[in-house]
Design brief:
By secondary structure, the chain is mostly helical. Helix content is 75%, strand content 0%. The longest helix has 31 residues, at 127-157.
Length: 188
């Protein structure tokens, strides 16, 4: 008497398979025998390895190397790679529905370029961009600190806060003055 998933499997078989011992044996071995390539030591790593913080190029190279070690078919490699890609990249790749390894590689690389998670890594490779981001962060901190001190003074003096249009106008003026000083511009 079969129970749980074994019973479900047996019930899902066609009546002709259930009634014939040879067909039942073949169906059983097909369902419950470990595929030959999974017996190799790297098969587990291939089908369970995740991309995590690796670039798409590094992840694909690693997966290709593992696939060659166990001589896995191209479609199984594609499945393993899809299973291990970061969710944001995997989502992009599955929408592209790649039909071969080259299409999967291309879709994964495009997906990596389009994800916000990889933006900081791209920014780190451009020193000018890093400097600009740091300047903007400093300016934002200064503006936030300045706005808090203005509101504190107004509350203490009983003065009514100014409209947001006036505050925005002054913030823009401060930004342009600071940016001009930082870049060495003499325009004011």
């Amino acid at each position: 008497m079969l129970v749980d998933t074994a019973a479900e499997w047996f019930d899902s078989l066609q009546q002709a398979t259930q009634d014939n011992w040879g067909n039942l044996k073949t169906a059983f071995l097909t369902r419950y025998t470990t595929p030959e390539f999974m017996k190799y030591k790297h098969a587990h790593e291939l089908f369970n390895h995740k991309q995590e913080n690796k670039s798409v190029d590094d992840y694909l190279a690693h997966m290709t190397r593992l696939a060659k070690q166990i001589n896995v078919a191209d479609d199984m490699l594609r499945y393993a790679v899809l299973n291990g890609l970061r969710p944001d990249i995997k989502n992009h790749v599955t929408r592209q529905q790649p039909q071969n390894w080259a299409d999967l590689q291309k879709a994964a690389k495009v997906g990596e370029m389009c994800t916000p998670e990889t933006a900081p890594a791209a920014a780190a490779t451009d020193p000018g961009l890093v400097v600009q981001i740091e300047l903007m962060r400093d300016q934002l901190n200064q503006l936030t600190a300045g706005k808090q001190s203005i509101n504190t003074v107004r509350e203490d003096s009983g003065e009514r806060p100014r409209s947001t249009a006036v505050i925005k106008e002054r913030s823009q003026t401060c930004k342009s003055l600071r940016f001009g000083q930082i870049t060495g511009s003499s325009e004011m």
